[in-house]
Amino acid sequence: MAEPQAEPTDLALRAAEVASDVTEAEQPQEQRRLMSAFTRAATASGRAATAGARAATAGARAAGRGTRAVRQRAGSGTDWLAGQVVAMAPRVRVRDRAALQAQFPGKSPEEIADALVDGAAHAAAAAGGAAGMAAVLPVLPAWPAEIVAETLVVVAIELKLVAELHEIYGTPAPGSFPERTSAYLASWAHRRGVYMVEGGLILAAGSPLTRMLRRRLTARAGRSAVSLGPLLTGAAAGAIFNSRETKKLGRDIRRDLRRAITAP
Fold first, then answer.
1. How many CB atoms within 10 Å of residue 92?
2. Which pTM value belongs to this model?
3. What is the pLDDT of residues 26-85, one digit of tens each?
4. What's the CA gap between 146 and 135, in Å, rounded?
5. Cα–Cα distance, 4 to 147 (Å, whole number)
6. Which of 166, 171, 176, 182 is the most buried (most CB within 10 A)?
7. What span, in angstroms and rounded, lies between the C-alpha atoms of 169 and 220?
8. Helix (H) or strand (E) holding 150
């Protein structure tokens, strides 16, 4: 049975747009500005968050309970998040190999890949820092909206990284646009290059990819809750955790892509 296609919320659409912009921003100040504006907008609109978003993050209103509560109570909310990620993925702007080479003239694929991983890590760090900063604003914060917003934008940043690494190594996913999108989602969920993913690329109810996607999103939402720690410690922790995890993803994908292009 096919997985029902969710309609992206305004938050998911904005997450795809800001993830693309913040990743390509050249200055850290611009990254922080973009993320701060996105987080403020998400906080303002999130007071009327969907039932799925509330279910995904119920119990995370108290910062000290964040990570454990999100993981314990994800439940049906993870289904909602997964639907939003699937709907959001095709909206993420991906540069092809020619565009990347034009943006980084004279650099080798390895040097461009280094720049892509660094840029994504900085963007993910900005996302964690922005969520933590929003938590200390002198207003009642919408905890669930902030967690959902950070989760969506970091996933979009990492999906962009996965797709562009495949492009620069000359190993783009084959097939139609929807097929390529599913392939990059599978690559993100499995932390493997497209050609190394096992268990199929079909987003169907109960499929290996759907189960893995939901597990990854539960863990990702749990890490986002760290950003809501007390005072500015949450901002610092969120930035560090996001940067570290995004760099690790980049290393894992690059390892597989190098193996794919050197295989006989």
1. 24
2. 0.77
3. 777 787 788 777 777 766 655 444 444 444 445 444 444 444 554 444 445 677 788 888
4. 8
5. 24
6. 166
7. 27
8. helix 143-168
Angle at 107 between CA 105 and CA 108, to 5 degrees: 135
Kindly state the tokens that stand for 193.
């290059």
Which residues, in sequence order, are CB contacts of 175 under 8 Å at separation 6+?
Answer: 183
* C-alpha span between 83 and 172 (Å, rounded): 24
> From CA 113, how far away is CA 133, in angstroms rounded?
30
Residue 76, helix vs strand vs coil: helix
What's the angle, vertex CA 239, arms to CA 234 and CA 243, rounded to 5? 150
Domains of the chain: which residue ranges?
A: 10-262
Q: Kindly report the length of the chain.
A: 264
Token digits of residue 71: 């993981």
The position carrying tokens 């940067």 is: 243
Q: Which amino acid is at 99?
A: A
